[in-house]
């Protein structure tokens, strides 16, 4: 495996003289390489150096990682630790074994310091060329395992612990106005989690979580997850289970650490969400792993402000409806870094979602990143606005980036940008469809109404398509899709695919440097030459500048 260390940006710490001489320790298992010292380059160093590691093909339950530790060289004392980032390798290795080689072009990864605070970005590219045979994938099933998993959050120091047959459900009695840290130790309630019964826990029990390890002094780091949590099989629960672990009405909830959730989804799929967050404010999820979720791995509903970093979500490709992250009725979600491979959407952005930013992800297998579907119930107006998806690589997914609305739906999808996207053997790389049929019994009669789509940009998207339709834009009518722009698109046939085309129906689209070329209804205005990454369809000055290019 070749590691291309490019540069870093915004490193946040400095010495007494306000200087940084950074270098990087790159570690894979027992192997370590050290970069050159970027002397005098400070917070924004450049290396452009390559290193080679010998890697082993991972086992079924193994997630190999590449760790990059950023250090500050000090002549007169020991070097200072600035922070690190972790890159998950399993998807890259599996794809390399399957295709003979695999490459992740250079992208940004967040650097976090010893307090798990953001400390800048580092840009790294990876190339893997295998020299071993693929191994048989084995999946382990079973009941709950003995664990020392701990989950901590910032909220009130008392929870109403609603312990019923449907789920493990945590409800704060009210929103916290003071940052008091509490601890919820899952191993302490093993009587609930290890052996669920249909008629158990029908009353509410009040628990002071400080009795189980929380400190709550404002100084102690109580935001740690270690060990593994594995769900029981389906027959241990009643038929109306809809959520495995749920948090409601919690402010400043933080879940972080190397622990994992194993939803044991083989007996559950399409029924039960693994982790659900409802009506939470200031949510932070960092470094978590979720395996074989019964349905959605992570569901975020009616929340305000969520940061998700370095996430690792995994389910088999044939596991139905196992969305990685499902977002609905939520404002302000930032997803940065990680790997998502599922049997459905890697990330689904549903109605009522605003200000969503997704970056630095690997997606595959799965159905890509989707806005929608919107408009399933014609009488309900569903709105999605201000979505940015950037620096995402898709591997052997059914779709890449997609906007989907249902016939005769109501609502809108606006100001949506997909940029810096890599497609690797994707069946349908770019999709904008107002003909999505969720129940497979739709008619093709004329539309009485349609979800209004406006201000959509596809910019700097390249790679390969495993299907014939590299670009598929199909609108209900010329007025239902406006302000759609494509620029710097280059999608070629994947190995074994004879050729690719673009489809464009009932749409007025601005395009420039697009391959395969589009043939859409022409616009009176000039075609788009180049769309900046920070392009805002609501900014008239930007629109005028582009129109005169």
Automatic annotation (TrEMBL):
It is found in: Secreted, Cell wall. Coiled coil: none annotated. Its main location: secreted. GO terms for biological process: carbohydrate metabolic process; cell wall organization. One of its GO terms (molecular function) is polygalacturonase activity. The active site is at 367. The keyword NADP does not apply. Transmembrane segments: none annotated. The keyword Secreted applies. It comes from Deinandra increscens subsp. villosa. SUPFAM superfamilies: C2 domain (Calcium/lipid-binding domain, CaLB) (SSF49562), Pectin lyase-like (SSF51126). Residues 1-102 form the C2 domain. Keywords: Cell wall, Cell wall biogenesis/degradation, Glycosidase, Hydrolase, Secreted. It holds the Pfam family Glyco_hydro_28. Belongs to the glycosyl hydrolase 28 family. PANTHER family: PTHR31375. This is C2 domain-containing protein.
